[in-house]
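Chapter summary example.
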Amino acid sequence: MRAFPFLPRASGVFPLRASTLQFTARTTTPLRKEVVDAACVALTHSRNAHFRKTPMNTASLIHSLALVTLTAAIAPSTASAAIVSVSGSATLLGAAPVSALYGALVGPPAYCWDEQPSILTTGTNVNITANGFYTGFTPYSALAAGTFASHMIHFDASSGVASVTGSATFSSPILAVLYENTLLSATDAIFGAPGTTYATGDPFRSSTAQLVSTQLLVSGNTLNFTLWANSAAWPNRMMQVRVFTDGTVPAPGAMALLGLAGLAARSRRR
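The structure predicted for these 270 residues follows.
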């Protein structure tokens, strides 16, 4: 918890500055100076309203907005793109696995997990960049520069079951998908989950020549899939699909700042 000592009770009008606030706890999220400053301004309005005998309902409103803004200033931003649900022959893992090598996560089902929450890239080759139905190998497309979150759908067919069908729904629209061996290996180091060992360079993972029966349907936030692997005639032992969604995270306190802007405008009109 953090301590926010209020100024001593006294008569008169005074400002409250950011230096007055004493933070006694550590945080992994940097505080945004403009949000803290805005909170201080609002708290000053609150205290001054009290000493000027401002009507109680107005003073309470000002004080409440100030505290909400200060809370937004210090609260860590936890919003990030994520898999929100799965269906069919799919299981959502609460954390990325230690290993995604052949034999580590035997299916069915297909296992799904979030990888990276926010990675800036200037151009990554992918298979899919638009809604639609896709089957077999899709030629490479260049993903436009941006900040992306990555997610993995993994099917290991070492049990002898050759296919799984299911879906995964994400918290934001799907921007791109890749599932071909070469592209998976090229993105493991950048977009793979920290601490997870991937089958980078394994020719039996999503083998390019054996994608003919795999089917993907991209529709907004949802990916429907039928993944095929493991056959006497096929060299691929597992299928993996890497999904990209929007990885930009709103700045903490942004909405509270908007509220304070309206409060300030109202105050100036008085």
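To summarize the output: The helical segments are 33-51, 56-74, 181-191, 254-269.
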